[in-house]
Design brief:
Length: 411
């Protein structure tokens, strides 16, 4: 694992060795101040995570007991970890547990006492089983035979507080693997998968082309989320109404999961209108969606240009050459006229010493670029490329090298 850490150029590594062919855990992080160890055992690594612009939260990797007769050890571990802290929490793991018979296909039915016991733990610890994007099973054996069996053994469990912290989080089944388990990928910011895929499509070193390709992908992805708020909210409420009177452990778990999904959609809706309104003095937890909606509408009206007065003092609108007038104005504004600046320069005393000049000519470091970028307000107005600072901050691990390269070219 140390070779892997060095190859990835990460600062941190904690690992737990496997016993034979079972178990084995590793936690790697890029910057040394991003993660701090809370506890570790043969079956878990519990870390406290620090991210720019986010409250501290916990991320726990767990390897569940493969022996069904020892499965209660995993359940008790979850109970212990849940009592350990009130921080927003996500546990991602090979739990070797399922929450319903639908998590398994082929072979004999999954033992009911294991399903019931695991669901009771989820209710007791108030953990929510995240939906899996992609193929619904993560483990298989006997492919192509009469005994072909698939089970969803790998999952991510979160608290409501964690989902509120990351309302756009997604859990993906990457499917392709040399192992009998499929790798799963958790993207807290939701759009990471779209950015990763679209950023790699453009092979050019031109960052503007990459941003354009990525922006088109995110635009389509965003439309799918923001255009269906009403239907998604109504669907969640309908499901909750059907499960409200049920008392069995699986129904209670499903009710809590749907309730958390409803809160997540409401949070997404609020974030959408807060960003549209540009009311940066209000916090994301203020729950003022109606106000944000009104503010966005007012801002859109205020930003409209219906007519302008031209150089001859006449009003022109869009039907009478306003577009040509705007183009002509800026062409003139940014056109260099004949100037003589030598006389002015000669009057300025030299203030930059040779030592200062050498410092200014040094190569810009990645830390300098990253620090400058992360000092910007995430929701400030976008640049000419259409992206706000939040895009580059949230996806720094993907776009950072290109941004640093562009800054170095500029200097």
């Amino acid at each position: 694992m140390e070779r892997v850490r060095r190859a990835l150029q990460f600062d941190g590594l904690i690992s737990v060795d496997a016993i034979g062919k079972s178990g084995g855990l590793a936690f790697l992080w890029r910057y040394k101040d991003q993660a701090q160890l809370r506890s570790v055992s043969q079956n878990h690594i519990d870390m406290e995570i620090t991210m720019d612009g986010k409250d501290r939260w916990r991320l726990t990797g767990i390897y569940g007991e493969p022996d069904r007769n020892q499965r209660r050890k995993t359940w008790n571990l979850l109970r212990t970890l849940a009592r350990d802290s009130n921080l927003p929490w996500c546990a991602i793991e090979d739990l070797n547990n399922v929450v319903a018979q639908e998590d398994k296909t082929g072979g004999a039915p999954y033992p009911g006492w294991l399903i019931e016991g695991f669901n009771e733990v989820l209710v007791e610890t108030e953990l929510i089983d995240m939906d899996l994007v992609g193929h619904q099973f993560t483990w298989e054996k006997g492919r192509g035979t009469d005994s072909w069996t698939e089970v969803r053994l790998d999952r991510a469990l979160t608290t409501v507080a964690w989902l509120n912290l990351f309302p756009l989080a997604k859990l993906y089944n990457l499917e392709v693997s040399a192992s009998d388990h499929s790798p799963i990928l958790l993207t807290p910011e939701g759009s990471n998968m779209q950015v990763t895929e679209s950023w790699g499509i453009e092979s050019s070193d031109d960052i503007q082309k990459k941003v354009k390709t990525c922006g088109e992908k995110l635009y389509q992805w965003g439309k799918e989320i923001t255009s269906r708020f009403g239907d998604r909210i109504k669907n969640c409420k309908k499901k909750m109404q059907m499960l409200r009177k049920c008392r069995d452990a699986e129904s209670v778990r499903r009710y809590n999961d749907i309730k958390a999904e409803l809160f997540l959609i409401l949070e997404q809706k609020e974030i959408f209108w807060r960003q549209r309104s540009k009311q940066l003095w209000l916090h994301s937890g203020d729950k003022n969606s109606k106000y944000f909606h009104a503010a966005a509408s007012v801002r859109r009206r205020n930003n409209q240009i219906n007519r302008l007065k031209n150089g001859e003092g006449c009003w022109v609108d869009w039907d009478a050459g306003l577009a040509d007038h705007i183009t002509e104005y800026y062409n003139h504004l940014f056109t260099t006229t004949q100037t003589d600046w030598h006389e002015t320069i000669e009057c300025i005393d030299v203030k930059i010493t040779e030592e200062h000049n050498m410092e200014l000519l040094q190569t810009v470091t990645e830390d300098e670029v990253r620090t400058s970028l992360f000092q910007m307000d995430p929701d400030k107005a976008p640049g000419p490329d259409g992206m706000t600072p939040a895009f580059y901050q949230k996806h720094w691990s993907i776009v950072g090298n290109d941004v640093v390269g562009l800054v170095r070219k500029f200097f």
